[in-house]
Amino acid sequence: MNRIDQRFAELKAQGRRALIPFITAGDPGPEHTVGFMHALVEAGADVIELGVPFSDPMPDGPVIQKACERALKRGVRLSHLFEMVREFRQTDATTPVVLMGYLNPMERIGLAAFADQAAEAGVDGVLTVDMPPEEADEVGPLLKSRGLASIFLVAPTTSNARAATICAHGEGYLYYVSLKGVTGSAILDSRDVAEHLAPLREMTDLPLCVGFGIRDGASAAEVGKVADGVIVGSALVSRIAENADRPEVIAGELKAVLGEMRQALDAMSAG
Questions:
Q1: Active site residues
Q2: What pairing do the DSSP bridges indicate for beta strands 97-101 and 125-128?
Q3: Distances (CA, A) of 108 to 31, 74, 78, 91, 157
Q4: Rounded to whole angstroms, how far apart are CA atoms 79 and 174?
Q5: Is pLDDT at 110 greater than 80 in this prediction?
């Protein structure tokens, strides 16, 4: 069983919600990323989304755009992410890792080579932001044959017909984008999220995880009431940016932010 499926099965049995942090690999420097990943696990991460630095991260707001710029300036490329995951796996064989990025870096090294190297490194899933399911006929089977889950986004503006297509192709979990706009751009409405998740639950058994707008423990708990998991990115990446010149304190900052969310989610589940 894929590590993602295993983790969500465990969480479901425990009646708990998944906490999925996102950080951009190589920000503020490639030598820090693996340590940050371990810190996130210590703080309660169930799955880690590792962002692939890209020059044009379309749905991302300024916080994550600048994180990509910092990583790219340090020369971070897709091959470095494989090295990071491989190092992470030396001491963590259970936490699922999802690469989140864009099709261009994958095509640059070749789709089959990407799938081979990702699986060999210990990656569990791939979320390719700019690859719609209608165009996934080549990539999807390559990933599946290597035991890698293809994870897709669903937006508030997605029609039911298109959502059904996405659900049919999706694996691992479904990433529901809670806001119209870019990451870090607004405050989410949990009631609106609940209304959009309801029809999706009729279409799929995949866990429904919500990202965009998760800022603190309170917002994580609110979303946790209606979703199977919460995804947090900008709130973490902004802490990295604020302390880019003091990388030694970043792991503690990440643990503080994520730890509050973990505590709030677990208290909500227990209640």
A1: 49, 60
A2: parallel
A3: 24, 19, 10, 30, 31
A4: 26
A5: yes
